[in-house]
Specification:
Elements: H1 13-30, H2 36-50, E1 55-62, E2 66-70, E3 77-81, E4 89-93, E5 100-104
Parallel strand pairs: 1-5
Antiparallel strand pairs: 1-2, 2-3, 4-5
Bound molecules: zinc ion.
Length: 109
């Protein structure tokens, strides 16, 4: 399962310090801790949603291995599998209308 990490992403020292602060702030506020890959993946999806690239929806119901999602465009519901170890935000598309979505699973895991 665990793939080896790729070579570091080049960032300046200032960028690194700034990212480190954001990571600490995020983890302190949400309790959603993890490594840099997980943090950057989560924040990239939430950031792209905030920038309007993807539509953002929140999971409505949550079971052990799936969540219910209500599409913000067609207002229809679908169930999405959430395997163990999934981060806070997941990229998917609505099976009914095809819109690209970022699903915020929240932090109550
Ligand atoms: Zn839809």
């Amino acid at each position: 399962m665990d793939e080896p990490r790729q070579k570091p992403i080049p960032v300046t020292r200032q960028e690194r310090a700034s990212l480190e602060q954001h990571k600490q702030r995020y983890e302190g506020a949400t309790g959603d801790t993890g490594d840099w890959g997980k943090f950057l993946g989560t924040i990239a999806l939430l950031g792209l949603a905030a920038a309007g690239i993807y539509a953002l929806v929140k999971a409505t119901e949550r079971s052990q291995q799936s969540v219910d999602v209500c599409c913000c465009r067609c207002s229809r519901n679908f169930v999405m599998a959430v395997p163990e170890g999934t981060g806070r935000a997941v990229y998917t598309s609505c099976p009914h209308c095809g819109i690209e979505l970022v699903v915020d699973l929240g932090t109550s895991r």
